[in-house]
Design brief:
Helices cover about 30% and strands about 35% of the residues. By secondary structure, it is α+β, with helices and mostly antiparallel strands. The protein has a single domain (about 1-225), classed as Alpha-Beta Plaits. A hairpin with a 2-residue loop joins strand 5 (about 105-110) and strand 6 (about 110).
Amino acid sequence: MLIEHRVYTLAPGAEASFWGTQRERGEHGLSPILERLIGTYATRSGEADQIVSLYRYDSFEDWQTRLFGLYRQDALQAYFRSVRALIKHQESQFLVPAPLRELTPHWGNGRDWLPGNGPIFASPRAGCAMEELTLTFSAGGVPACWEAMRQCALTSDPVVMADLCAGFSSIAGTLNQVLLYWHYPSAEAWSIHRRSLGESARWNDFLRALAPFGVQASSRLLAPSGVADMSPMYARA
């Protein structure tokens, strides 16, 4: 299993136009990659005018075949011209699921959700939020991170585990990173959880254990796409 983490930085104020191009392309034009889409989001904190997408592929070859095959389709050329004009910068990295089963409720360690399985979250996407926490280390920090989680019994902390829906680490692109994702029914729920996490003794012990690896933590709040086929984890209502 291979996870692609893709980020588009748009021209300032171009988010509405970006979603508009997605609606105009129709439901089936991008099906080879939408069949592997975890979700597409717009940033609501951190750097503005960014679109973040996560895809789950079988392998590098699966990613290459599905994505590159789109570029040869004549019917999609108008779409590509429209959407590329809005994108000022794009970057991609490959991730793999965390080795700890508790951090992989949907992808990895025997779990393998795909859009065809139906929504994960019963709440509609409107108003929901996803937090992306990125821990960046010096070399060797990722295995140390997993070990610190074990030693601090982090996955037994109900505050840490509440609404956690994914854990990955990077293997290509920006290296030595662990990315954790929490789903919230609202931005208010996110704010409450952030305060609780800051008060968690196990969470703070975990961060202190990683200090020798120069850990840096950055977080951003993400809003699910309002385009239904770009937010397949959420109920459509």
